[in-house]
Amino acid sequence: MKTKLYTSLGLSLVLSLSLSIVSCDSKLDIEPRASIESNRVFTNSSNLRAALFGAYSEVKGTFNGPQNGELYGGDFNIISELISADSNVHWGGTFGEYRQFENKRVITVNSRVTANWVRAYTAINVLNNVLANLTVADTPEDRAQIEGEAKCLRGMLYFELVRLWSKTWGLGTEATDPGVPLVLTPVNTVAEADALKTIGRSTVAAVYAQVINDLEQAQTLLTPFDKNGTNISAYAAAAMLSRVYLQQGNYPKAAEKADFVISSELFELSGEPLDAFNNTANSKEDIFAIQQSTLSNAGTSNGGVSTFYASLNGTGRGDMQVQEPHFHIYEPGDLRGFIQDDLNDAATITNVEDMFYIGVFSQNSGHIQTAKWGDANVNIQVIRLAEMYLTRAEANFEAGTAVGDAPVNDINVIRERAGLDPLAVVTRDEIRLERQRELAFEGFRLHDFRRWKFDINGLPFSSPSLILPIPEREREVYDIAQNEAYN
């Protein structure tokens, strides 16, 4: 088995202590060459925060070719949008790994699949190390905040893993369907790594239960710390819980968590839809965003989403090409459906005034691009307030409740920001369409279509071809059952 050096506690911690963690290529296969002496690595709150910073960096990702996982910096978005692509978006790039997602013909050695699995489990191991050493925190307040952030991030990662690599929730077979391996303790010794070789896959139900447990604890632990600046807050934990509960069809809980965020009045919608994106600092709409222009949470720039979505001077390849049928979902006058066609080769995102534009200055210039991801040096929105209004509206509608407000009022908040007239009444179809308009190309499409039981490009929502394969090199080391479409 090949091994390579890997520093998984974050560069600042490694440099300060002259200690690196070494592990195997496959990050479930995290067998180190030497054990880690935790009592030397973790001695105070500063050490714990440094390691947590490393986890934020892993969650962000950095694109350096198909071998590196992107997670929230790119592939959690792009893979979802491409697997659910029909006539709304087309992969026009040269990376064949991404074309496989659009074609629903992914192979078990797809480098993007492997890279994202590796990076996710790398980040989880960092978080498990932090959680195992909380006793060294300097104060109870430090401990609560660090534990809350770590548990929120771990819950988020397991949620994305189970959604992409497992059957969807809602089939009635969650208690037996294979989910993903649940690794909840740090792996820093040979013996700990060996123990994982028979870990197998926890059920979908068990993974969801762990996700909810982590996120609920995170919300409780972080509630005293207000918005918590640019890092994870209680509101980010609650917002992520609203996603989880919505995916499960637990509408009362989804409405409750979304309302917790909205009713805090700590966030507000940006002036126009495009104002929520391409910001160098958190906008008033951001509940959690990956920081790229500062050293908070994720660090410096990342070209993941902008590399593939943008087609501008100095930014992007224009590979994610929006197709004309996508615009059929917009009403006349909807600010989210306008296309700018007057850019020249010198144009950057600062010259883009509409939500879509005709790309320039790239190998794929001349195609329609979304303007949501236009610069590698601006923040990447992970959770924003508009989603909470849409979630509360849908959850209340399906539950027949009015937690916080009536569904029609929440939908009208979003519509009126987009320049549309308010509705007198709202239907299930209108709520779902509004979600597609507002959250287009933000990584929601696959997961929404599967929970709505919509066909995807002729495939039923439950098709095994809409699920990623377990990476082949993981299965060479571990007893992990492969997904149905890949046996």
UniProtKB/TrEMBL annotation:
Broad class of where this protein is predominantly found: membrane
Secretion signal span: 1-23
SusD-like N-terminal domain mapped to chain residues: 103-246
Domain RagB/SusD intervals: 331-453
Keywords: Cell outer membrane, Membrane, Signal
Localisation per UniProt entry: Cell outer membrane
UniProt-listed Pfam families: SusD-like_3, SusD_RagB
Annotated GO CC locations: cell outer membrane
This protein's record includes keyword Zinc: no
Similarity field: Belongs to the SusD family.
Protein's UniProt name: RagB/SusD family nutrient uptake outer membrane protein
Species annotation: Chryseosolibacter histidini
